[in-house]
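Why Ferroxidase? Reviewers of the renewal asked for a concrete example.
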Amino acid sequence: MISDKIVEALNKQLNRELYSAYLYLAMASWFDSRNLKGFAHWMKVQAREEVEHAMKFYEYINDRGGRVVLEDIKAVQIEWKSVTEVFEYALEHERNVTRYIHELFNLARSEGDRATEVFLHWFINEQVEEEKTFSEILQILKYAGETPQIVLILDRQLAERK
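Here is what the prediction returned.
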């Protein structure tokens, strides 16, 4: 049996994942408004991935006999000064998500909930990948000084994300 404390924490993370999807859609919209279709596409794929993460939490809560509780999704930032600033913001967001996942893992461990610990391993590994990907794009932007040529080359590359 899963504890109420774990169910509550899992529900919070499910809702954070939906917030992440909302945030990445806002970023996609920002890129679309600047005709950076590759960046917009990349963020839309990222948003879909966050919904998939939320659904993993949804199914896990149900599988363990808990009840999914959906909360309001608070408004997200919709304006940034530059492409670089978008990726700085996104990387910081992913670092916060990593912290939340680690806190959730620690809670599961303190509660002796081995099944939840195992479930969260996938998310721990996923966060390593998420931070790495955002960091790599950000490093390119910073290294190149966000020159128009580099932004357009990167825009074409990001359009290829599946």
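The domain at 4-158 is CATH 1.20.1260.10 (Ferritin). This is the kind of structural detail the renewal will allow us to pursue systematically.
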